Amino acid sequence: MSSGSDEPVDCERLASERATLEREYPLAGLPRVRDVLADATGTLRARVAFARDGQGRAIATVAIEANPRWRCQRCGLPVERTLASRSVVEFVADERTEVPDGDREPFVAPGGRVRLADLAEEEFLLAAPLAPSCDEPERCARAPRPAPQSVAAAPATRRPFDGLRDLLQKTDRT
User: Is 18 left (phi over 0), alpha (psi -120 to 50) or beta?
Assistant: First the structure.
């Protein structure tokens, strides 16, 4: 598996050749992935197998694997969890193009070219857990929690029109 160039590849040519490319990407080099992790150490391994469907359209099977460190949504501590995913994408010219096969994800490839890092990053984000958490609930129970605010610390409620009734009654008497 190589880290390879980050240059766009020709999807049409690779689909015709039924090529399979394998790459490794540092998680720190994938900006959208970096934002959802506790830290961006480690690598994302990707395998992209290009082909043509029955109608001759360029497609690819994208498979990824990584061992990222997520931030537990309950306790805030880092937790390592393996992520592996596989899906089939169909390369389209723009966002408006519909994919006739509902089992495929459309992937915009301007001019029939795509960056493999973009394919791998998109697959990672689609497979990422929405709210990662520890496998051990007792670990979360031991995690430091912010102290609850006391009721006395809450600011007093202001009522700007409290005296309005008295004021209106005084003006009615005059």
Answer: left
Cα(109)–Cα(46) distance, rounded to whole angstroms? 18
pTM of the prediction? 0.74
Is residue 17 domain-resident? yes
Q: What domain range is 101 assigned to?
A: 9-142
What are the residues whose beta carbons fall under 8 Å from the beta carbon of 74, sequence distance 6 or more? Answer: 133, 134, 140, 143
The answer to whether 47 and 63 are in contact (CB under 8 A) is yes
- What is the C-alpha separation between 12 and 56, in angstroms, rounded? 10
Closest CA to 60 of 96, 12, 23, 95: 12
**pLDDT digits over 34-57, tens only?**
888 888 899 999 999 999 998 899
Is 14 part of any domain? Answer: yes
Neighbours of 94 (CB within 10 A): 9
Q: Is residue 166 part of a domain?
A: no
- Structural domains in the chain (count): 1
Distance CA 59, CA 54 (A): 10
Whether 107 is in a domain gets the answer yes
